[in-house]
Amino acid sequence: GATAPLAGLNVLITAGPTQEPLDPIRYLTNHSTGKMGYALAEAARDMGATVTLVSGPVALDAPAGVRIDRVTTAQEMFEAVSSHFPEADLTVMAAAVGDFRPVNAASEKIKKHGRTTLELELTANPDILAWAGSRKRTDGSQVICGFAMETQHLIENAAKKLLEKHCDMLVANNLREPGAGFATDTNVVTILTPTDEQTADIEQLSRMPKRRLAGEILNRLNSLRAQVPQTV
Ligand code: C5P
């Protein structure tokens, strides 16, 4: 019905940053607060979905009525997503996943030892969104939305990501735009959808609260899902 447009659907959301340990005391991370991902989880719940939220470390309260799976590293997020993804009808990856992690997390605190420089060797983390894009069901019943935050060439980079990671939708965030980005309660985004293998449609949305934007994203994503006949 109109009030429960996602009734009967499983929605999987990723949110927040990841933390990649350097030693028992320190880690590499980013400025993600989890606000957009948590807003998506709450909106999906209110639209009638069964929601699983895979969350990196954030200061937000767990939304009521949502299954939450808390993780720390990108590798743990990948493992959580791979276990929940097969049953997800709609997946939205709003997490800011660390692209790299230290090759070796030191087992003891890294000491200064009078050094003036320190080299860290990093290795690539799995790209969770690309993995999901390559594994989604081929009948169109499973749709995936990614996010892209860029400081330059936003639309070109976002279109490239949409197509390369086989997303059904990509939400592009300009970090430099007032009322957009990490710690704000509003966002200004452009929504990209693929038209064919090479090109994308783009739709610019006005600045709005993250909670309302979440509903807009979920409604659009759901409309891209193929209606597969159910066998009774
Ligand atoms: O390529 P980039 O990191 O900018 O892509 C951002 C999108 O990809 C986001 O939806 C993010 O959640 C997802 N991502 C991911 N795993 C990674 C890196 C990004 O799922 N290792």
Average pLDDT: 94
Count of helical regions: 5
What is the helix fraction of residues, given as a range?
10-25%
Strand order of the largest sheet: 5-4-1-6-9-10-12-13
**Overall 3D shape:** globular
Quote the beta fraction: 25-35%
Task: Summarize the main sheet.
Answer: 8 strands, mixed
Bound molecules: cytidine-5'-monophosphate
Cα separation of the termini:
21 Å
Unreliable stretches:
none
Q: Total number of β-strand segments?
A: 14
Query: How would you classify the helix and strand content by structural class?
Result: alpha/beta
Rg, rounded, reads 18 Å
Order of helices and strands: EEEHEEHEEEHEHEEEEEH
Explain briefly what this protein structure is:
This protein is an alpha/beta fold. Helix content is 24%, strand content 25%.
Topology of this protein?
Elements: E1 10-15, E2 20-21, E3 27-28, H1 35-46, E4 50-55, E5 67-70, H2 74-84, E6 90-93, E7 100-102, E8 122-124, H3 128-135, E9 143-150, H4 154-164, E10 169-174, E11 186-187, E12 189-194, E13 200-204, E14 208-209, H5 210-223
Parallel strand pairs: 1-4, 1-6, 4-5, 6-9, 9-10
Antiparallel strand pairs: 2-3, 7-8, 10-12, 11-14, 12-13
Bound molecules: cytidine-5'-monophosphate.
Cytidine-5'-monophosphate is lined by residues 14, 74, 93, 95, 97, 99, 125, 127-129, 146-148, 161.
Function: Catalyzes two sequential steps in the biosynthesis of coenzyme A. In the first step cysteine is conjugated to 4'-phosphopantothenate to form 4-phosphopantothenoylcysteine. In the second step the latter compound is decarboxylated to form 4'-phosphopantotheine.
Binding site for CTP: 99, 109, 126-129, 147, 161, 165
Organism: Bifidobacterium margollesii
